[in-house]
Amino acid sequence: MAQRRTAWTRLTTPFANIPASTATALALAMWVAVIGGWALLSYGRVVPNMFLPTPGTVLQTTYRMSLDGSLLYHTFTSAKVVILGFIVSSLISVPLGLWMGTYRVVQAPLEPLVNFIRYLPVTSFVPLFILWIGIGIEQRIAVIFFGTFFQQLVMISDCARSVSRDLVNASYTLGTKRSEAVWHVIFPAALPAILDTLRVTMGWAWTYLVVAELVAASSGLGYISLKAMRGFQVDVIFMAIAAIGLLGLITDTAFRIVRSRVAPWAP
Amino acid sequence: MGTLILNASSQTAVESRMAMTETIKAKNLAGTASAAGDPHSTGTTMAIQDVTLRYGDANGVLALDDVSLKVARNEFCVIVGPSGCGKSSLLYLAAGLNDATSGSIKVDGREVIEPGPDRGMVFQSYTLFPWLTVRANVEYGPRRKGLPAAQRKQIVDQYLDEVGLAPFADHYPAQLSGGMKQRVAIARALANDPAVLLMDEPFGALDSQTRGTMQKLLLRVWERQQKTVLFVTHDIDEALVLGDRVLVMTARPGKIKAEIKVDIPRPRSMDVILEPEFIALKRRILGLLHDEIDEDH
Ligand SMILES: Nc1ncnc2c1ncn2[C@@H]1O[C@H](COP(=O)(O)OP(=O)(O)O)[C@@H](O)[C@H]1O
Ligand SMILES: [Mg+2]
Fold this sequence. Notes:
The complex is a heterodimer of chains A (267) and B (297). Chain A has helices at residues 7-11, 20-43, 55-67, 70-102, 104-117, 126-133, 137-161, 165-173, 181-207, 209-212, 221-230, 234-262. Chain A has 267 residues and is an all-alpha fold. Chain A folds into two domains: 2-52, no CATH class; 57-262, Orthogonal Bundle (MetI-like fold). Chain B has a six-stranded mixed β-sheet, with helices on both faces. In chain B, strands 2-1-4-5 form a four-stranded antiparallel β-sheet, with helices on one face. Chain B is globular, with a radius of gyration of 20 Å. Chain A binds chain B through residues 164, 166-167, 169-176, 178, 185, 188-189, 191, 263-267, and chain B through 92, 95-97, 114-117, 119-121, 123, 125, 127, 129-131, 140-141, 144-145, 172-174, 185, 188-189, 192, 198.
């Protein structure tokens, strides 16, 4: 049956799988197209190099800043801010979100407030944070926290709420007490979805980095981008962007690995 | 053309099975007179008295209307009724997972007020804990009870063996077929040694062949374990193959319309469905349920 279908039919069938080799080839082709397009525009002087550096310059800058250790230093500072902000946020949002999804009495007061706050732009709070917290690393961590916490809370509460009622009911008929259900049933049942939520929100945390380092930072990838902007060092900005993307990719992969270790039973 | 051939061959199969049942029936009658003792003589395990259930407010659905029934110790009691007649609602009440609007439910003389391990339940949907292996699923109840590890292991081994899943002890539920999942669910409920086992159409989602296998397995387990079972189904054949007694339930509002004693001797084979007394009982139940449909119109 399957052999009678042409390759084209297979590629254009909704949800149909494509061979792994085809998928890899398509992914590579996309990168080649993006970098090729960039090379064409920059080397061909279609866009002045002052605005669009060539891939070669960006590589040279990266090499130079790797050698003198500054790239590693700024990367480390930024990673520290993002990861600390993310950890503090997750430590509160996971238990609170579980409660919120499990108990209507926790959800009822929190949900309207959280839904209000999570639509507020993080940037609008930066001046407040500076006033309240100062200009140290705590202020940057607060920005990351503020950007991720409320989103996490709503999503994790949804993870808990979508646990099958009959799974909880079954646990009751097996001797689980009402007070134990959250820990013994709802948490493990929701764990794969919670880990997926953490992975996705970790990505969002990275996107707040530049906002966090916008004011009063003296190191970090966002900070060197802003400084480079003033000096028209577009190559540094490109390098910083690529580094943030790469770090995001690394944490994403790390979360996928953790999920497959912690919840090997989940598809 | 194809249909014709199919009909012809299934005809022969039915005939040969009928011939087989004759011999089985003869054997049953000869050897098992004592196996089908009167369940009522051994006392009541579960008593449901004048239970009414209305969902929502006073204008909500009246799901159960003044239902009363008793389940005797070690009896296999089956409730049969059309979809939506309130069978699940009744079992959830019996399990203590929901509160009746009025009436009382007692198990071993104690009023049911909340769920507990003395009322095991097997659900129609798959409710194995996906994060636990088959072994850990069965062990869940004994663990909640705080039994020591050695005793837990002995219980788990016994019931996994009983449902024929010992080789799958270390699998996760996602790796099992639907029938296997329900077998684990049965083992998991039995591992708590409940006073009554509530079963809500546990084989409803299975294909008919697997369902037959599961019925056979359940009968074997029940005969060996001597458990009180309240089993709910919409399948008349299933009700008659399994039950000592079948309660016919009708819809809107859910009411017990008739009680039918099934005096077909045990152990029963799946071929009982071809015996005249089985067919007579089935005709009666169909009649009761059809009356209901006619009254509706
Ligand atoms: N949680 C609920 N809220 C409102 N109505 C319900 C609820 N559960 C069941 N019902 C209604 O009660 C009736 C009986 O349902 P149920 O007990 O599930 O029947 P069965 O198990 O026999 O198919 C149906 O009309 C159904 O729509
Ligand atoms: Mg039902």
